[in-house]
Design a protein that fits this description.
Layout lengths: L9 E4 L2 E5 L12 E5 L2 E4 L5 H11 L25 E5 L15 E5 L26 H11 L6 H9 L62 E7 L26 E5 L18 E5 L7 E2 L3 E3 L1
Parallel strand pairs: 7-10
Antiparallel strand pairs: 1-4, 2-3, 4-11, 5-6, 7-8, 8-9
Length: 300
């Protein structure tokens, strides 16, 4: 049966307006523009391994990363390619060209939410960490079971700003105000030099870093988070359907991409300065990685 305690660990987000996007960073964040947002409630933190485990136990759900693709879906694939798996980040031993993501992202057979680093890995000690290797359909399935929804990009960015005026980061213009680390991001030269203490080079337990002014944690860093908004190369190209909760639905296709927000523990100033509220990236709906999760909302 679904989780009916839909108020647990949720934060009320007031209606209001904000300046969405940025004219100062990556092209896909442009143009900055005013958005009006109705009130809603949002999960205080990303869905954790413990929470996702309850969903799976209740429903028997298998994620896309756990399900081998079929020859009908991919008629040009060879049998050895029709295996279940996901992308896993691996730190390199030294500097590598930053124009080739395959240097640090590795397709790993047997990697999924229960085995985040691949065969032999477990969730021991990770109950309070965000669940990862979650494709868009997996997030939708969990949200439906929980009696919730996924946020639009507009709702997500509004919540990340928490009523603050536009600044470089969600908390201000300094990445580490007074030397305080504010989010789980890559510190050092990407992807080989991570200056985090030992044992903190991947996800972190939710709530380890300071909440924003509305009481939400880990909206920035830790894991990227799915939204329901379709990917566009800029905000100028986004029609009303891209951020409307009432857009006409059609079956998802392999080529569809959705916006993910917030950056992750592998976002670095030296490579991917996307641990900022307006930052955005597109992700194929059936793809999953070791740094991609989600959180849910309920609309008032």
């Amino acid at each position: 049966m679904p989780n009916t305690d839909d108020s647990k660990n949720m934060v009320s987000i007031p209606a209001g307006s904000f300046l969405m996007g940025s004219d100062d960073h990556y092209p896909e964040e442009r143009p900055a523009h005013l958005e009006q947002v109705a009130g809603f409630r949002m999960d205080q933190h990303p869905v954790t391994n413990a929470e996702f485990r309850r969903f799976v136990k209740d429903t028997g759900y298998r994620t896309i990363a756990e399900t081998p693709p079929t020859a009908e879906e991919f008629p040009d694939a060879t049998p050895d390619q029709l295996v279940a798996g996901s992308l896993v980040f691996r730190q390199t031993e030294g500097p590598v060209p930053l124009n080739d993501w395959r240097q640090w992202w590795h397709w790993t057979t047997g990697a999924h939410w229960r085995a985040p680093l691949g065969p032999g890995s477990t969730l021991d000690g990770l109950d309070r960490h965000p669940v990862v290797h979650i494709a868009f359909e997996d997030a939708l399935a969990y949200a439906h079971w929980a009696g919730k929804e996924l946020p639009t990009e507009v709702e997500w960015e509004y919540a990340a700003r928490a009523g603050r005026p536009p600044t470089m980061y969600a908390w201000g213009d300094e990445v580490e105000p007074h030397g305080r680390v504010m989010a789980n991001t890559w510190r050092g030269e990407f992807p080989w030099q991570n200056l985090e203490p030992p044992g903190r080079d991947r996800t972190s337990a939710v709530g380890r870093y300071r909440a924003n002014d509305w009481g939400l944690v880990d909206l920035i860093g830790n894991v990227w988070e799915w939204t329901t908004s379709g990917w566009t190369d800029s905000h100028a190209e986004a029609g009303a359907e891209q951020h409307s909760c009432c857009a006409p639905e059609r079956p998802l296709q392999e080529s569809d991409r959705k916006v993910m927000k917030g950056g992750s523990h592998v976002c670095a100033e030296s490579y991917c300065l996307r641990y900022r509220p307006p930052a955005r990236q597109g992700q194929s709906v059936r793809s999953s990685t070791s740094h991609l999760g989600f959180r849910c909302i309920k609309r008032d």
